[in-house]
Write a structure and sequence with these properties.
With about 80 residues, the chain is α+β, with helices and mostly antiparallel strands. It is built from one helix and six strands. The longest helix is centred in the N-terminal third of the chain and has 21 residues.
Length: about 80
């Protein structure tokens, strides 16, 4: 099973690669349209899934590469209720 920190690292790497590929083709990510939702779930004893709170993972920042080479942190939306 993939852990949240492994998934976060893979997502961050993929976003940076995607942004660099866009830049190589004279494109760019639009910061105003970039955000992400952090969603976690777990399985119950009855074999059903349920959402888990994510507010303790506010340090899992995702950044996007900008045209000038800087990195911009994205807005994160966290699940506050179960």
């Amino acid at each position: 099973m993939e852990k949240i920190f492994e998934a976060h690292a893979a997502l961050q790497s993929n976003i940076h690669n995607w942004g660099r590929l866009l830049s190589a083709t004279r494109g760019a990510l639009k910061p105003a349209k970039c955000f992400y939702h952090l969603t976690l779930f777990s399985w119950t004893n009855e074999g059903k899934w349920q959402y888990n709170k994510t507010n303790k993972y506010t340090d899992l920042e995702i950044t996007i590469p900008l045209e000038d080479g800087n990195l911009l942190p994205l807005n994160i939306y966290l699940l506050q209720h179960q």
